[in-house]
Amino acid sequence: MTGDAAAAGRDVDWDALRAAAREAMSRAYAPYSGFRVGVAALADDGRTVVGCNVENASYGVGLCAECGLVSQLAATGGGRLTHFVCVDGQGAPLVPCGRCRQLLYEFGGPDLVLETPDGFRTLDAMLPQAFGPQHLG
């Protein structure tokens, strides 16, 4: 864990967050790629929000798990993401792609703590100098 991420993640039940991500992954709809993804995050009010990938025969219009997660965040009251886990089809930690890191930045900001295969990182460490709402007039 990096210093800031270690401190921010100390009081989080990462096992429960991973279990929620694995449960979401078990509901993924991935008949084309076979690559199932599940995510779970804590919101700043203590809610756990989840998402899974949903593919489509048109391939490019599939939905990533992170899209489902932020949609659930908004639909259940909004807020900010504080801690995030992404797992693959075997339940192992997986890092979000660049597009999804940008999406997470919008709803969690630079201090969002992510579990990665090699420890915990803040989103700022994974997406340095990110473009965000602060850049818009």
UniProtKB/TrEMBL annotation:
It is an enzyme of class 3 (hydrolase). GO terms for molecular function: cytidine deaminase activity. PROSITE patterns: CYT_DCMP_DEAMINASES_2. Residues 12-134 form the CMP/dCMP-type deaminase domain. Gene3D superfamilies: Cytidine Deaminase, domain 2. Keywords: Hydrolase, Metal-binding, Zinc. Its cofactor is Zn(2+). It catalyses: 2'-deoxycytidine + H2O + H(+) = 2'-deoxyuridine + NH4(+); cytidine + H2O + H(+) = uridine + NH4(+). Coiled coil: none annotated. Its EC number is 3.5.4.5. Belongs to the cytidine and deoxycytidylate deaminase family. This enzyme scavenges exogenous and endogenous cytidine and 2'-deoxycytidine for UMP synthesis. NCBIfam families: cyt_deam_tetra, PRK05578.1. This is Cytidine deaminase. It comes from Streptomyces halstedii. The lineage of its organism: Bacteria, Bacillati, Actinomycetota, Actinomycetes, Kitasatosporales.
